[in-house]
Write a structure and sequence with these properties.
The chain contains six helices and five strands, in the order αβββαβαβααα. The chain is of the alpha/beta class and about 170 residues long. Strands 3-2-1-4-5 form a five-stranded mixed β-sheet, with helices on both faces.
Length: about 170
């Protein structure tokens, strides 16, 4: 993805969708820098916090979403991946903004490693770790290039296949 292409895409909000928290990160307008933003605490047994994700995206002036797809080690869907796919469709449908599904395997491990390399501790900072994992996910998405990212775009209508049949972008 060139800087001009990323600038046309605008800011992207990355969503690292977890069981207990949803990590968020934001790109700059040119799509070159991914910055950890925040984390939303999920309530057990409640619906996904789609409205809150949308509110945060609007406040950050995001123009699209990168939703992490938590695949298993073999690249297959997990129960949480199915839920992440549904959240991505809801985000696209409710906002009219593009949503992209990107393989998020190992983003939390990379975030933990980064925090430790910077001399930090993760004790009591689970929300920070989730936001950092979202930033790792977003950096990966920004590095994919336009063709791969566009192929990972989620149709707002799940009955309409994407250009490549709905494949997700992976490493």
């Amino acid at each position: 993805m060139t800087a001009a292409d990323a600038g046309a895409r605008g800011r992207l909000l990355a969503v690292d969708y977890g069981d207990r928290r949803v990590g968020l990160a934001l790109s700059d307008q040119l799509g070159m820098i991914a910055t950890p933003l925040d984390a939303i605490v999920r309530r057990p047994g409640k619906r996904p916090p789609v409205a809150e994700i949308i509110r945060r995206a609007e406040a950050a002036e995001a123009r699209g979403f990168v939703v992490g797809l938590p695949l298993d080690g073999a690249g297959e869907d997990t129960p949480r991946a199915v839920e992440a796919r549904a959240v991505a469709v809801q985000l696209a449908r409710r906002t009219g903004m593009p949503a992209y599904l990107v393989d998020e395997r190992y983003t939390t491990a990379a975030a933990l490693r980064t925090i430790r390399e910077l001399g930090g501790t993760t004790r009591g900072r689970k929300g920070d770790v989730d936001a950092m994992a979202a930033a790792v996910l977003l950096r990966h998405a920004l590095a994919l290039g336009d063709a791969a990212l566009d192929a990972a775009r989620v149709p707002a209508d799940p009955d309409t296949p994407s250009a490549d049949g709905g494949a997700d972008a992976s490493a």
